[in-house]
Amino acid sequence: MELLNPQSESKHALLTITEGIAKGIATNKISGLSSVLQINEARLALDELDKFLPNFINNLNKEIEKLYKEQNVQKKIDDLNKKQRQQQQTNVQQNTTTVNKRNTIKEETNG
Q: 33, 55, 44: which is closest to 1 by C-alpha?
């Protein structure tokens, strides 16, 4: 696993391979060593997780807040566009009513 994830430690690849072979031989010779090594790996993984999570959660919360603000801004823009369309429709209706009244008055005066 260490070999597949070399950025976690800045060891030379040959050293990592040698350590892996030594651990394999030692676990076959010493009873219980395999369990101890697995527990140690789990502890190291939990330590890494403990370091990673607070920063990750802070960054995640910042991104969520950013998206929320952008969503609110977009909602306000949509609301303003809706009001503008409604106002335009109202203006068109008022203009149509005014034109109809003028036409009616013209017809009455001409008629």
A: 44
- Closest among 38, 43, 45 to 8, alpha carbons compared: 45
Torsion angle of the four alpha carbons 68, 70, 76, 81, in this order, in degrees rounded to the nearest 10: -140
What is the C-alpha to C-alpha distance for residues 57 and 107, in angstroms, rounded to an integer? 74
Domain containing 61 equals 31-110
pTM of structure = 0.40
Can you tell me the distance from the alpha carbon of 63 to that of 69, in angstroms, rounded to the nearest whole number? 10
Q: Residue 3: inside a domain, yes or no?
A: no
Structural domain count, the chain: 1
Q: What is the pLDDT of residue 44?
A: 93
